[in-house]
Amino acid sequence: MSPMLAGALALVGRGWPVFPCIPNGKKPLGELVPNGFHGATTDIELVTRWWTTYPNANVGVPTGHPTVDAFDVDVKPAGTGWEAFNRLKRADVLPVPLAVVRTPSGGLHAYYPGTAQACGSLPKHFIDFKAAGGYVLVPPSIVDGRPYELISERPEARDQLNWGAVKQFLNPPRPITTAPRRSTTGTGIPGLAAWLATQTKGNRNRGLFWACCRAVENGATESDLDELVRVIIAQGLDEREAHRTAADAFRTTRRTA
Asked: Do the bridges between strand 79-80 and strand 75-76 make them parallel or antiparallel, or are there none, so unpaired?
């Protein structure tokens, strides 16, 4: 049994679908999976046939539920994502990952429980996020002669990564002229709630994070943010996502302060 087949079968044993990628590369092996990562499977017999035919094929895994979301720190000639990664860690925006994998470029993949979040990228910060609709190569895959290597595992870790909070922290929104000014008394929750009620699809999560940060700066407690969460849920934001964004905003603002 080749190391690649052994690695693929180990993941299938976890319930993760896998698919073959070209040896020493990242693209799906079209001869076997013409639909790319959509052809991933947990069928042991099919997986065995794939890697018997191509013993050196790299192992790919679709990201998002039911596998993992992957936070990707890039290392490129133009720069690296390590500075952004360290800022996020210091601000406690990144939860403890399920696993950390060193990538062939010298970067890393941090795995988190898979979600329905969309993939994303912050090119300026050399950071990528692979979730629903994406895929990653996993150990023992090899690219340009260098392997993906498992550095650590924390199977007990359960916190999901909030990609919206990562984006808000690294690319904070510009001041919004229509937003309420900071209240001179109390936390300013009513004014912030009124502003949130005007937010439309595409700016709800971003607006909630901004409003929660301003409220905490003005003395709000974590429970005070529930009013803002209720308002944005009424505007159509997913309840779990709204509570997670408010908690991330509270933690990030308190940590920064």
From this structure: antiparallel
Sign of CA dihedral 131, 137, 140, 143: negative
Residue in the structure block whose two tokens are 């510009």: 174
Please give the Cα distance from 154 to 152 (Å, whole number). Answer: 7
Distance between CA atoms of residues 233 and 250, nearest Å: 18
| Cross-strand pairs, 130 | 70
CA distance 188 to 225: 11
Task: Indicate whether this model's pTM tops 0.90.
Answer: no
Both tokens of residue 72? 């990707």
Q: How far apart (Å, rounded) are the C-alpha atoms in residues 200 and 133?
A: 24
pLDDT of the chain, 257 residues: tens digit per residue: 899 999 999 999 999 999 999 999 999 999 999 999 999 999 999 999 999 999 999 999 999 999 999 999 999 999 999 999 999 999 889 999 999 999 999 999 999 999 999 999 999 999 999 999 999 999 999 999 999 999 999 999 999 999 989 998 898 766 544 444 444 334 588 888 888 888 887 788 888 998 998 999 888 899 999 999 999 998 888 898 899 999 988 988 887 76
